[in-house]
Amino acid sequence: MIEHIVPILAGTLAAAVPLIFAGLGELVAERTGVINLGVEGMMLAGAIAGFAAAVESGQGAAIGLPAGALAGAGMALIFAFFALLLAANQAACGLALTIFGIGLSAFIGQHYISYSLPGLKPFAIPLLSDIPLLGPILFKQDAVVYLSILTFAVIAWGLAKTRLGLLLKAVGESPEAAHAIGYPVIGIRFGATLFGGALAGIAGAYLSTVYTPLWVQNMSAGRGWIAVALVVFASWKAERLMLGAYLFGAVTILQFHAQGLGITIPVQLLAALPYLATIIVLVVISRDRRVLQNNLPASLGRSFLP
């Protein structure tokens, strides 16, 4: 049992990275009142763009991750054009974006099925990585794991402690009031949406260039939907989202170690555990309407035209 603890916990940190990036991006967008259900499509676009850029350049994740961010932001720009400028239904635009991302990534990715990448080697932090038990778990990870933690810290601090964070919340609560005192509501929502798309693209690129690292059609495997659910699970708070990402990362990685732990559960059920956990958590949270009403952005999903 003990010999499985370190690889399970270390694997949890890596498995949570796509959920952290995608979830934080969606959290920032929803703080301004924009709900983008196209996270899955943006992740897949980022995955294939990052993988293609990494293969063609020969530079691996160093080029793949920025390329994924650009692809995710480009997909978000399409969503923002229709949902924000033309005031189309946000839920419908997000679903269409996911369908488009699935098809586009499959079309482009058919040329890269036979390729693979070396990925990123774990970076051991001197001295800290030698700490018994905790060292290999916390301080011997690839660089993107550390980047995800830094991204969380910056976003959590920015939302809670800065003027920009208060402005994003004000736009999400009452875009009419924010517009009345001179703030560019559409511009702020545009920026938050593109930022969320870029983070979703990074999440996808991490899957294809670091975590796997190869291209497989629909390789996000529903993580985009889990990221959207995590925002609700977290009650629109970055700290809870981080905790939820690690929780679902642990459930994901546990299925790979189940046989070694002597757990005799059908493989199909183990593979479904992250999604079952998502449904259960959402059902439990939705029963407490007070929590949702206290944290839900008042204008979430509602179009605004000045």
TrEMBL record:
Keywords: Cell membrane, Membrane, Transmembrane, Transmembrane helix. The keyword Cell inner membrane does not apply. InterPro entries: ABC_transp_permease (IPR001851). Pfam families: BPD_transp_2. The keyword Nuclease does not apply. The chain crosses the membrane at residues 6-25, 37-55, 61-86, 93-113, 143-160, 181-208, 214-234, 241-259, 265-285. It is found in: Cell membrane. It is a multi-pass membrane protein. This is ABC transporter permease. It comes from Dentiradicibacter hellwigii.
